[in-house]
């Protein structure tokens, strides 16, 4: 690779890794699995080794990935909470042992499971718990003391009191509790946590401790950070003391003297991982002697006396028996592989999404194939490849027609997805009603998936407008309904009539028309009648729209089914006018395009957005030549850099508040 190509790739990796770190540490909602993240991190490290001039102090390889939210008070860590260097094969484990024993031939190692949770520090003064914090960026974390106090396995008073004691542990959500929480979230139609690690992080970093308490988190202690009043010679000795003091300490540890012993211990832990009550994503290998650790030291990010062996994504062979085609809310035909059950990451798996025809064709998938399936990062099952066909196997082709209503499927130009264009398709109707009643749409409290299914089965609703004609007597024939619950649902349906027009437009579930687009549309035209009068070109000129969005909206609003639905919703009393915000036309931000980046200390990003829009400003998601101002808070990233490159005026938070 040439230097110029390497430099470009390094910048790409910086951007990607920071994005994934933000999703993982701050949003508790990663878009990629750990394996993908680790692969990119190693690619970056390799490039920095090959081209040393491309290594910078700001590189993700040099810094712990977390950051600190303004929701909590900041805590400066006296002892840095470092991350660990990851390794992925036994040769790297052997190399680590060799390096350590070159310095200390008598070095022995503690080998222990690596819990997939959220790392925290617990600080005790005279035996009393006084401060608990997250790792953050390793130097500064968040004060989550009150939330940590809800974890029953954290002792508030220690059995063995010392003047000062600080320990490090991993907060996790037990797997059984995670499954209960996901089921509850699905029933409440809430966003579902992807895995126990994200559930634990999201639960601990809650603003309200009573919510954390309901999540039933747990913790295991794995390291002594600092103490006064007692001296320890080894890591194992310190953990035994902590256990005697009342802490729940990491179990499954073993003391090993050679690389072969360590590898054997890793295999034992790997074989038992499904028997544990919590998720582990690898094994930690540490020098046991604490004085040797001090001498070996570390980098600004990782200690040199410890590594983490990460388990590879588990892959298994199975037989593809059939491909089921599901129809989504917007008519998308999604193929799903149905295969013989296999155990992956501790769960029984028999289904995996195949995405679209292009995906199937690329992997040359036929029904009856022997396929490889993995559950990368213990999140979502995926078909990796087909490894063997049956005799006379034929590559699978999605049907030309909707499998539910029989309407001929279409594939729009530039899209990989086949769609059923029939908006009255029964498969779409259920999902449309769920969307219509959702919190961000018409916000009909209590109208969940199960009730919608029951209403459809009883043929009490044919489309969303029928919800407004429901009677108490009709609801009482459904299982689980009593007088009070029926009255509550009818009241919620009636209250939804007051929702503004942009919520009604969003509730229709038109492809590519989200909440923001619906609001922009209503701000521009002011009423449903004016929207219906507009042609595609007039819609496309709205800032934030484009030809595809305008075409989708126009086609949907002028279809017979949607026009009939809108007439019935209007007759039911729903709002078809839009009350435009009173804009201060002379305000500094009026008619200006603004980009927000970084974290504001005085308000949330959503509040800043609302206040700018209230005085006539427009919020954009990316920086371009059309941007008038960039407002930069703490930890501003690539948007700030791009604004500087384009010579766009940058406002600090203080300047922003003055202008506002």
Description:
- Strand 19, helix 23 and strand 20 form a beta-alpha-beta unit.
- The chain folds into five domains: about 5-55, Helix hairpin bin (Helix Hairpins); about 75-310, DNA ligase/mRNA capping enzyme (D-amino Acid Aminotransferase, Chain A, domain 1); about 315-390, Nucleic acid-binding proteins (OB fold (Dihydrolipoamide Acetyltransferase, E2P), Beta Barrel), CATH 2.40.50.140; about 425-570, 5' to 3' exonuclease, C-terminal subdomain (DNA polymerase, domain 1), CATH 1.10.150.20; about 595-660, Rossmann fold (3-Layer(aba) Sandwich).
- It has a five-stranded mixed β-sheet.
- The two termini are about 50 Å apart.
- The chain is globular.
- The longest helix is centred in the N-terminal third of the chain and has 24 residues, at about 5-25.
- With about 650 residues, it is an alpha+beta fold.
- The chain has 24 helices and 20 strands.
Summarize the structure.
By secondary structure, the protein is an alpha+beta fold. It is built from 24 helices and 20 strands.
Write the layout of secondary structure elements.
Elements: H1 3-26, H2 34-50, E1 74-76, E2 85-87, H3 90-103, E3 109-115, E4 118-125, E5 128-134, E6 140-142, H4 145-148, E7 164-172, H5 175-187, H6 196-204, H7 209-214, E8 218-228, H8 235-245, E9 254-256, H9 259-272, E10 280-287, H10 290-296, E11 306-310, E12 315-327, E13 333-344, E14 347-353, H11 357-362, E15 370-374, E16 382-388, H12 426-437, H13 449-457, H14 472-476, H15 483-495, H16 501-507, H17 515-525, H18 528-533, H19 536-540, H20 547-557, H21 560-571, E17 593-597, H22 605-614, E18 618-619, E19 629-632, H23 638-645, E20 649-651, H24 653-659
Parallel strand pairs: 2-11, 17-18, 17-19, 19-20
Antiparallel strand pairs: 1-6, 3-9, 3-10, 4-5, 4-7, 7-8, 10-11, 12-13, 12-15, 13-14, 15-16
Helix pairs in contact: 1-2, 3-9, 12-13, 16-17
